[in-house]
Structure formats: structure tokens, C-alpha cells
Amino acid sequence: MSSSAATISRLQVFRQSWPIMLANGAAPIVGLVDTLMVGRFVGTGALAGIGLGAAVYGIAYWGFGFLRMSTAGLAAQSDGAGAEAEVQSHILRAIPIGLAIGLLVFAFQIPLLKGAFAIFTASAEIEGSASDYIRARLWGLPATLGTIALMGWFVGISRAGLALGLQIVLNIVNIILSPLFVIVLGGGLIGVGLASAAAEWAGFAAGVLLMVREVKRRGNWRPGAFSRKVLLAREALSKLGVANGNIFIRTVCLTLGFNFFTNAAASESQTYLAGFHILMQLITIAALVLDAFAHTAEAVTGAAYGAKDRPRFDRAVRITTEFSAGFAVILSALIYLGGPFLIQLLTTDPAVVESALTYLPYCAMVPILGFAAYQMDGIFIGTTQTAAMRNAGIVAVALYIGAHFLIYPVIGPAGIWVAFLFYYIVRAITLGFGYPSIRRHMAAGEG
Questions:
Q1: Do the beta carbons of residue 442 and residue 307 sit within 8 Å?
Q2: CA–centroid distance for 64 within its chain
Q3: Alpha-carbon distance 273 to 174, whole Å?
Q4: N- to C-terminal Cα distance for the chain?
Q5: 431: nearest Cα among 284, 242, 253
Q6: What span, in angstroms and rounded, lies between the C-alpha atoms of 152 and 203?
Q7: How far apart are CA 29 and CA 13, in angstroms?
Q8: SS3 call for 409
Q9: Confidence class for position 4, pLDDT limits 50, 70, 90
């Protein structure tokens, strides 16, 4: 085993993963605080509006997630290759791109909102409430997308604790401003949205300060880091554009798959959908944990790939996957054994409880059958094999939808879950076909 391979230890992987778990867990808190303020101090109609508004705003947040992924992969590779100037240039390009996209969406919000409400149909009252909330939150979208880029960079250079620090600042500011804007100033939905937007800018400012401090810790800015020649280098921008485009297509496919799953559940009955919503909360919690090891895989496999060190890469894959598999088993057991308690805690409707309990075993299988898909995503992001990710995403969602229409007519409502579990499996398998080529790209010996 090479000496560089030995530098990647289980302790190192866990130390990098737990801050990501906390950062991932902190990400939804803004939405929870918004919901709490509206539900307690504004009203039921506004609560429905914020639910729709959050769904629409989420399209922008998740749709531009390629800023995090591409930045993480490119930064990890440059870090592994010891190219500090490139490490710096990646974030100096990514932040302006995020800010520019956010400003562009803000400028064209009127036609974009009309298009969104054509898809997410609701009553005029709910759409009006949702529109108020979204318009207020859009003031913070440039900061949100800049923050996404920063978080990717922190993960890519194996400084996940900085991403956690950024999230802590963001949430503290939001927890302070939301009650102030809603209860004290009576701002309603607009106040809630503005508080969240202000918090996003505070989080972004904290992220920039942490970035500057990290750069100084690593030896300060390299000569020409801010020069036009470096930032607008054609080859680097082309590589970034291709990576972002491929990841965007892959994200669209992933979103299509999950929306198809939700729509399939909605087509059954209100009771089935209510039980499904509860089970999805359990899946979300599991995803937050398993994503931490996938993000760590982005950093450590990307660094090994950048260093052209195949033994180190293989060890990084093995250790992060061991952690992911182990936690997947634990999570599946917790969901299966603790699920009945959580279900009855979240609803008192006997019919909804019965429906959720019926499909709980399928839900409990998601971590075990899905962890490989998370891990493969992390490896391919870290090595920026984005064309393979794009192609696999297209094939996987097509196979999933086809499987649904084959399985559902045979076994009924349970087929919705069986097809969804199949989707996780094919996501991993389709990426697996491209895995050998990643190893072939590296030298057989040390970097």
C-alpha cells in the first residue's frame, strides 16, 4: 500500500462526515422556522401558501445545486494535485456565477412565477400568498446560490466544519429575525420571506469570511488569483460549463423521478398520500445521514483522482462505502423498529396510521438498497465524471418509470414502493458501468 493511501483513515472519514451530517440537518431549519411563524401567528391560509411557495422556491434551490457539486469535485481534484492556485480559482469563478444566476432569476421573477403556478395549480388565494412569500425570499436567492458554491468548496477541500459554521450563522440569524419581522412588525408572509432572505445574506457573508480565513491559513492568495486571465481562462470555464450542464440535466432527471413517485402516491387516495408524506420524512432523515458520507467521498476520492493515486482512491472508496453501508443498516433498523412510534406521533388519524404502517417495511429498505446510489453519486461528483452521471440519470429514470407501469398493474399500490426501490438500485447500477473507466484514468502506482 502506498503511503498516500495510508493517509486516508476511518477516523479522518468520520471526522469529515459528522459536520456534514449536522450541516445537512441544519439546512431545512429555515423552512421549519418559516412554517412555525406562519402556522402560529399568521393563519391557515397563509400556511398553505408557504407550503406552495416553499415547493416553488425549492426548484431554484435544488435546480442550481450543480454549483455545489461541480465546485466540490473540481476543488477536491486540484487540492489533491497540490494546485493551490486552481483551488482558489474554482471558488472565485463559482461565487460570481451563483450571484449572477440569482440576480437573473430575480429580474425575471414575474414570468417565471407565472410558469411555476401553471404547473403547481392552486386557488387564487393560495397562489397570492405563495407569491408574496416567494417574492420576498427571492431577495436572498443570489446569496443562497453563492452559499451553495461555498459549501461545495469547503467540502471539496475537506473543511466540512466550515460549511457547518456557515449554516449555524444562517440559522441563528433566521431564528432571531423571523419572530421580529412576523410578531413584532406584523410582516406576515412577506416578513417571513424577508427574514429568510436576510439570513441567507448573513450566511453568505459568514461563508466569504470563512473562505478568506481558510485561504490565509493555506498560504494566502496566489499571484494573479483575481486577474482576468485566470478567472476567464477559456479551458477552465469550458470545463466548468460542461460539468454544470451535465449535472443540471442529471438533477432534472432525479427531480423527475421523485416527482413521479409523489404523483403516483397522490393518485391513490388522500389517506395513502398522507401516510406516504410521513414515510418520506423518514427517508429524508436517512438521506441527510447517508449524504454526509457521499459528500466525504466527493472530497477524498476527488483528491486521490487529482493526485493520480489509484491505491489512495481505492482506499477512499472502500472506507467511505463501509461507513455508508454500516449506517444504512442502522438506519433501516431504526426506521423499521422506531417507525410505528414516529408514525403515531405525527398523526392521530387511524386510517393514515394504518396506511403508513402497511408500507413502512418498504420505507425501511430504502437506506439498505439506496446507499450505493448515494456513494456512486459522491464518487462521480468528486472525479467530475459528469457526462456519465448525466447519461446514467437519464437511463435510470426511464427504467424506473417503465418499471412502475409494469409493476403497479400487477400488485397495486405496493407497486409504487417496489418501483421506487428499483429506482435506487438502477441508479447505482447505471453509474457502476462507468466506474472502471475512472480507475483506468489514473496511473497504477502512486501519484
A1: no
A2: 10
A3: 31
A4: 13
A5: 253
A6: 14
A7: 26
A8: helix
A9: very low
CA–CA distance, 289 with 17 (Å, rounded to integer): 9
All three cell numbers of 14: 468520520
Q: Which backbone phi and psi does 446 adopt, to 5 degrees?
A: -75, 155
Percent of residues, the chain, with pLDDT higher than 90: 36
pLDDT, one tens digit per residue, over 284-325 is 888 888 988 999 999 899 888 888 888 889 899 999 999 999
Q: Residue 280 is which amino acid? A: M
The residues near 382 (Cβ < 8 Å, ≥ 6 apart) are: 72, 73, 76, 77, 156, 297, 298, 299, 300, 301, 302, 303, 305
Is the confidence at residue 256, as pLDDT, over 80? yes
User: Which cell numbers in the block locate residue 177?
Assistant: 429575525
Sequence-ordered alpha helix ranges (H) in 412-434: 414-432
The residues near 377 (Cβ < 8 Å, ≥ 6 apart) are 294, 389, 427, 431
Residue 150: all three cell numbers together: 461555498
- How many angstroms separate the CA atoms of 262 and 254, rounded? 13
What is the DSSP secondary-structure string of 377-392?
HHHHHHTT-HHHHHHH
Q: Among candidates 312, 295, 64, 342, which has minimal Cα distance to 160? A: 295
Pairwise CA distance, residues 13 & 30, whole Å: 28
- Average the pLDDT over 374-388 and give the result: 91
Predicted pLDDT of residue 227: 78
Q: How far is it, in rounded angstroms, from Cα 401 to Cα 277? A: 20
Estimate the share of the chain in helix, then strand, then coil, as percent rounded to the nearest 5.
Answer: 85, 0, 15
How confident is the model at residue 28, as a pLDDT?
A: 63
Residue 343, burial from CB neighbour count under 10 angstroms (0-12, 13-18, 19+): buried
| Alpha helix stretches (DSSP H) within 157-269 | 160-179, 188-217, 228-231, 234-266
- Give CA–CA dist 362/329, Å, rounded: 14
Cβ atoms of residues 361 and 277 within 8 Å:
no
- Which single residue is written with the C-alpha cell 408514525? 343
What one-character DSSP code corresponds to residue 224?
Answer: T
